[in-house]
Amino acid sequence: MTDLFKAQSLEDPHPNNIQLDENVVAVIPEARNAIRIHASGHGASYWTRTAGVRVQLPNGIERKYFLKVAAGDRGLGMMEGEFESMKVLHAVTPNFAPKPISWGTFKSNPDLHFFLCNFHDMDDELPELGKFSASLAQMHRDSVSPAGKFGFHVTTYNGNIPQDVRWTDTWEECFVNGTRRDFELEKEARGPSEELEALMGPLFEKVIPRLLRPLETGGRSLKPCFVHGDLWYGNGKFCRALEICPLTECFFAKHRMIYRLITQWSSTQLASMATMNLVEAFPKGLDEAREK
Asked: 182-202, pLDDT tens digit by residue?
């Protein structure tokens, strides 16, 4: 299926007929009974190639799936992280994410990897903020972290950037790991910076401990909530009655982490409206550290 990468060029962004890899076909539900399976380019992504897959059954019913393909070792991690994230997201809030089907590696090309989920027709309008916020609040409220830890069991990616989400006992540890990773990636991309190096010591030795440690000491604790790591308005779409978050760079974190992501939205007014809706939607008591 290397033709998916070739076909989705600037000259032909939506190829009409893509030959699916054998391993992709093997995980498509009801593929054995299908009278026709057709794949064509659909949507756009900075880091992957995407396609819609239509499966025609003998009884006339058509099933639709969404396929994402990425290359290399990083692509392998991206596909695994998205599948595992969406599994949790869909299990907790089924109306908030497509149902994940499978992920794996091409038989025809071991350097290409895929992720498959149910297909939903989505428009380009922003979701209704009240419903969208309610779904976010449900995800945070009802998600349960294994052993009450922060992080995730596989690496997840913010776009094509790996996040440090190794399991930790405290939110402070988790936040420090992720922030250190950001500094490391910045150094790799732009080279050493004396100014940043000078800031890192006070940040990790004084600022973060003073802000976060009191939340989990003195008999207080935080609930690890499942959060969407790339929640900007482009990742929230309408799908008839559903509010869909199609991209999932997720992990278990302090739920207020989501506010930082929303404030990065390009529309300040929209960000303010979304934040107010979230504050109203979150259950009382989740905002504050809880007494043990």
From this structure: 999 999 999 999 999 999 999
Q: How confident is the model at residue 290 (pLDDT cuts 50, 70, 90)?
A: low
Counting Cα atoms < 13 Å in the Cβ hemisphere of 130 gives 1
Length of the chain: 292
Euclidean distance between the first and the last CA atom of the chain, given in angstroms as a whole number: 54
| Whether the Cβ atoms of residue 228 and residue 274 lie closer than 8 Å to each other | no
The answer to whether the CB of 54 falls within 8 A of the CB of 62 is yes
Instruction: List CB contacts of 161: < 8 A, sequence separation 6 or more.
Output: 185
* CB burial string 113-152: b at 16+ within 10 A, e below: bbbbbebbebeeeebebebbbbbbbbbbbebebeeebbbb
**pTM (predicted TM-score):** 0.81
Query: In terms of DSSP H, where are the helices of 28-110?
Result: 72-92
Tracing tokens 């756009």 back to the chain, one arrives at 44
93 CA to centre of own chain = 14
Distance CA 187, CA 86 (A): 31
More confident position, 157 or 139: 157
Contact 24, 52 (CB under 8 A): no
Query: Which of helix, strand or coil describes residue 137?
Result: helix
Contact yes or no for 37/48 (Cβ under 8 A): no
For residues 230 and 123, is the Cβ–Cβ distance under 8 A? no
Q: Which residues pair with 228 in a beta bridge?
A: 250
| Tokens read off for 280 | 């109203």
Question: How far is residue 24's CA from residue 46's CA, in Å, rounded to a whole number?
Answer: 22
**What's the rounded Cα separation, in Å, for the pair 16 and 150?**
43
- Backbone φ and ψ for 42, nearest 5 degrees, come out as -150, 135
> Rounded CA gap, 254 and 290, in Å?
12
